[in-house]
Write a structure and sequence with these properties.
By secondary structure, the protein is of the alpha+beta class. The chain is built from 3 helices and 7 strands, in the order E-H-E-E-H-E-E-E-E-H.
């Protein structure tokens, strides 16, 4: 899969962890799929000098979660995440892929995605997202209290 710079890319709006990791970019598509990308730099390395597996997992989780949010039109929360590491991402490469809905039920959405480091597939991911009520206070309730 080749990265397409002509897509309508925008940064995922977030705070906290997203600001440390990214910017992760997304491009909403009319067919409901969600291309995503992250330029790998020195912040993303592991002890072997390649992209840390947690970075790849986090990018896949963020992309599939964003796609699930757009499909549900409500807040969502990851309830299951599975992945297979296929190759190492290299620093300086663009980590990218497309997140898509595999199946949508009333209260959950099944997602899948493949990640590429430039043109080499490095991770296969899937997961399940719970669709939360529109007025969900999940974020307020999960803050660490002093």
């Amino acid at each position: 899969m080749t990265y397409d710079p002509s897509l309508p890319w925008r940064d995922i709006e977030g705070q906290g962890f997203h600001n440390l990791l990214g910017p992760i970019q997304i491009a909403e598509m009319p067919d409901g799929t969600l291309p995503f990308a992250l330029l790998l730099d020195d912040r993303h390395t592991n002890a072997n000098g390649v992209c840390h597996g947690g970075v790849m997992m986090s990018v896949a989780d963020s992309a599939m979660g964003s796609c699930a949010f757009f499909a549900a039109k409500n807040p969502v929360a990851t309830i299951d995440f599975e992945c297979d590491f296929l190759a190492a991402g290299r620093i300086g490469d663009r980590l990218h892929g497309i997140a898509k809905v595999a199946r949508k039920a009333r209260n959950i959405i099944f997602m899948e995605s493949d990640l590429y480091s430039n043109d080499r597939r490095v991770l296969r991911a899937s997961g399940i997202w719970a669709i939360l009520p529109e007025n969900s206070r999940a974020r307020d309730e999960t803050k660490i209290k002093p």
